[in-house]
Amino acid sequence: MNTIKVDHLGAEKCVTGSCHLVRFSETGKRDVNILVDCGKAQGRDPELPISEFPVAPSKVDYLFLTHAHIDHIGRVPDLIEAGFDGEIICTHPTKALLGPMLKDALSFTGRGKRKIQSIEQTIDALSWGFEYGQVFTLKRGIQFRLGNVGHILGSCFIRFSFPQDDEVYRIIFSGDLGCKNTPILPDPEPPESCDLLVLESTYGDRLHEGRAQRIEALERCVQNALADGGLIYIPAFSLGRTQELIYELDRIGVRVPVFIDSPLGLEITKMYSRMEDFWDQDAKALKARGDHPIDFKHLYAVARFREHKQLMAFQGPGIIIAGSGMCSGGRIVDHLEAGLGDPKNDIVFVGYQAKGTLGRRIIDGKEPIQAKVHVLSGYSAHADQSTLVGWVASMDPPRGEIRLVHGEGRARKALANAIGAKNIKY
Ligand SMILES: [Zn+2]
Q1: Most buried in the list 29, 107, 211, 396, measured by CB within 10 Å?
Q2: Residue 96 belongs to what H/E stretch?
């Protein structure tokens, strides 16, 4: 008799720190332990110490990564230091993004250069990129398939099939589900049937604006904000949001300088540019017409710290895109400290702001600032309620149990009601 146990070690009732454990037990044999993501919690979200994981890292056979955002991969170095030496499995683009993403994250942890290098080499040696859409077999006949979810470059859902007597038990981890019509990336692929769906619910209680409305909203916002000649600050994740913004600012044809003040954001933009095979049809068509989808005349790279210092003296008009996305560190903090006291300036939020972060406090009006604050929700890389409900509905029957994770209480409850399934936990 085989048993399968799924535990949520992180992001069960909040949005960051994703980590799930699947234990596959067969009588008389050692368990096969699979972790899905090992992310860092942000803001006030809880984080279970690795030493308290139900399974020691050295006993984890496989670590699957749904995508390369830090709240899904940020604790991979800690896991390795705690003894993990199994295989890391992800898509090819995620494998390519792991290096720069973790290198950047590691540089803030106080580890020495040598230590960082050795962790990077270990991650590179343990990780393997796989194709979307194909079925691969692990030990004991466990199979998996990675499906595209259009959240960021390389993002995927994972469908496992575990042999059980004469049948199979199938589990899908949605990872972070993207929106339809996301710039550069294809729409989320419909999931196949499964016995257990572990589904994210970040925006389970919200509806985003459509792509056309949100481009209009961005255009209006940019025009109004620049009318007085000031600066627009856009805090953005280096991975995903930055490239999306470049794409859409290119489409609306901005005529003021746009600065990407982020060495990591620039490196990842180059990767997005290189990996054309993973673009959607629109982006490919633009390129074929001679208009590169994520490059334009007024776009400036600010890589070196010296250049960042020079940019600090710039008065505008212009747009500054910098990390971190929730203003919890990085170069954006310097800009905000320098510019939020000036009513000519504007800050535009285009991403989720977790509780306890500076971004959330600014939105909630808890910071004494003079600059104007705008929130453009259509820019989320996460599916809204209707896309989440539609994705579940597109699944082949029979549909088994659904567990909602990766969302605050209100979002999980609203999404559970909207899905309306009987067998749903939230
Ligand atoms: Zn993500």
Answers
A1: 211
A2: helix 92-106
Q: Kindly state the tokens that stand for 320.
A: 């500054």
176 Cα: distance to centroid of ligand 1 (angstroms): 5
Residue 155 alpha carbon to ligand 1 centre in Å: 8
Paired residues of 127 in beta bridges = 88
> How far, in Å, is the centroid of ligand 1 from the Cα of 168?
29
Q: What is the block-wise mean pLDDT of the chain (426 residues), using blocks of 10 residues?
A: 92 89 95 97 87 97 97 96 98 97 90 94 97 97 97 97 93 95 94 95 89 90 93 95 94 94 96 96 96 94 97 95 92 96 96 88 96 87 93 89 93 94 88
pTM: 0.91
Ligand 1 centre to CA of 152 (Å) is 7
**203 strand-pairing partners:** 384
142 Cα: distance to centroid of ligand 1 (angstroms): 26
**Beta carbons within 10 angstroms of residue 424's beta carbon:** 19
Whole-number Å distance, alpha carbon 26 to ligand 1 midpoint, is 33
- Report how far ligand 1's centroid is from the alpha carbon of 71 (Å): 7
CA of 313 to the centre of ligand 1 (A): 33
Orientation of helix 211-226 relative to helix 241-252, angle to 10°: 80
User: In order of start, what are the domains of the chain with their CATH numbers?
Assistant: 2-206+382-425 (3.60.15.10), 211-379 (3.40.50.10890)
Residue with tokens 């499964």: 194
